Amino acid sequence: MIKLEKIGKSYKADNEWIPVLKNVEMEVNQGDFLAIMGPSGSGKSTLLNLIGFVDRNYEGNYFLEGNIVTSKNDADLSKLRNQRVGFVFQQFNLIETLTIEENVELPLLYDGWSYRETKSKVLELLEKLGIGDKGKKMPKQLSGGQQQRAAIARAIINNPDFILADEPTGALDTQTSNDIMNVFKQLNEEEGVTIILVTHDPTTVKYCNRVVHMQDGILTEEVR
Ligand SMILES: Nc1ncnc2c1ncn2[C@@H]1O[C@H](COP(=O)(O)OP(=O)(O)OP(=O)(O)O)[C@@H](O)[C@H]1O
């Protein structure tokens, strides 16, 4: 599904180019639940942004379903981002001035759906994620775990090919972290949703079926 070949990326600091990703080779298959682990500053978020079509300044080749992504322009990349990827972040990143329902329906509206069509789809998904009664609330009125469920709903509402989750349990207590990881696990096992998770937390890794480690921009896969 995703294939990265010899990916390299550097940032310029004080007139010097600092390599952040070095010759990264990676394949992600449909249905994988993959963890990316590694110390702070090792390049995990840089890699995630590249996989999520946020960044296109890198060396090497990126293939999605066998098609090369590397040479696409910004407009094509933003279309891919809207249709193919769901993002989940540590701080939830819900829009504070919109209700939960409105937050979750946004990706559908961007995709050209009418308000009338989105309603039942949003309500069904909120119900499935255990926050069916929270649709009319504002994000601030929900607990961290409930907000993350809403963010997951927003990430999967338009059936993306894969979810990119950047430390999605980093702001949650242990019990709520486990609840959220179980939501991901259920989506992965029951609906075949492909998930790529950046995490510092070894306890979240037991939910994943593959683990890769990033160290100074070099990616290696753990043999399990
Ligand atoms: N826009 C940028 N300009 C310059 N340097 C950057 C930029 N973004 C990231 N870096 C540098 O690239 C390196 C990798 O950063 P990245 O955010 O990918 O690491 P990370 O593994 O995700 O870290 P963390 O776990 O702390 O989020 C760091 O040294 C960082 O300072």
Structure write-up:
By secondary structure, this protein is an alpha/beta fold. It contains 6 helices and 10 strands. Helix 6 links the parallel strand 7 and strand 8. The two termini are about 20 Å apart. The site of adenosine-5'-triphosphate has 10 residues, from helix 1. Keywords: Amino-acid transport, ATP-binding, Nucleotide-binding, Transport. Pfam families: ABC_tran.
CATH superfamily membership, which one?
P-loop containing nucleotide triphosphate hydrolases
Strand content: 25-35%
Number of helices: 6
Summarize the amount of helix as a percent range: 25-40%
Structural class: alpha/beta
Query: What is the CATH topology classification name?
Result: Rossmann fold
Rg over CA atoms = 18 Å
Largest sheet: 6 strands, mixed
Reported CATH architecture: 3-Layer(aba) Sandwich
Q: H/E order of the elements?
A: EEEHEEHEHHHEHEEE
Biggest sheet strand order reads: 6-7-8-3-9-10
Q: Which small compounds were modeled alongside the protein?
A: adenosine-5'-triphosphate
Determine the N-to-C terminus distance: 21 Å
Count of structural domains: 1
Q: Which residue ranges are poorly predicted, with pLDDT under 50 across at least 5 consecutive positions?
A: none
Overall CATH class: Alpha Beta
